[in-house]
Write a sequence for this structure.
């Protein structure tokens, strides 16, 4: 049963990630990101990390994604393209994507084959509990944690400023 749940969550995570990139409508792209984040929460549960899974759902799939949905709804879809397509872009983009996939597949398979005969990592008793997470976020990784929160705030404010300039320009 655990293996089936792993594969269902992995397919959901991969499908959501591909949907984020492949969807042309930004609203559907945000919904695909929510599917991806919920699938990651299931994978965290399979790793015996209930606190991280709950934080994933509450913080990212809940609060941050609601913010993204509001920003996308406020900015609007906009029928025009953000930039003119480059000549040969339709041929070059899939080739670069395939090259990146091959490179990542080689890297993942090379590291996975080394661990094939082992039982996996040893998970300590305090793995994923709130005390360990608090230590990591508030002592070891405080600067990156705060930098990411400031970056998210700046992105939301920037989207609202850009949308208000667009509406003032006569294109409501």
């Amino acid at each position: 049963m655990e293996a089936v749940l792993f594969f269902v969550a992995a397919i959901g995570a991969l499908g959501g990630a591909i949907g984020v990139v492949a969807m042309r409508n930004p609203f559907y792209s945000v919904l695909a990101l929510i599917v991806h984040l919920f699938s990651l929460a299931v994978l965290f549960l399979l790793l015996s990390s209930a606190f991280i899974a709950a934080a994933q759902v509450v913080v990212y799939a809940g609060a941050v994604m609601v913010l993204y949905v509001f920003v996308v709804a406020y900015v609007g879809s906009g029928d025009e393209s953000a930039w003119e397509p480059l000549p040969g872009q339709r041929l070059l983009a899939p080739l670069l994507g395939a090259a990146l996939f091959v490179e990542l597949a080689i890297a993942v398979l090379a590291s996975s084959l080394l661990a094939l005969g082992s039982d996996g990592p040893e998970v300590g008793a305090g793995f994923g509990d709130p005390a360990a997470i608090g230590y990591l976020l508030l002592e070891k990784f405080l600067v990156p944690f705060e930098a990411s929160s400031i970056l998210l705030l700046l992105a939301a404010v920037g989207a609202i400023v850009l949308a208000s300039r667009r509406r003032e320009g006569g294109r409501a």
User: Anything to note?
Assistant: The chain has a mean pLDDT of 83. The domain at 1-75+125-172 is CATH 1.20.120.1200 (Four Helix Bundle (Hemerythrin (Met), subunit A)). The radius of gyration is 20 Å. The first helix runs from residue 2 to 22.
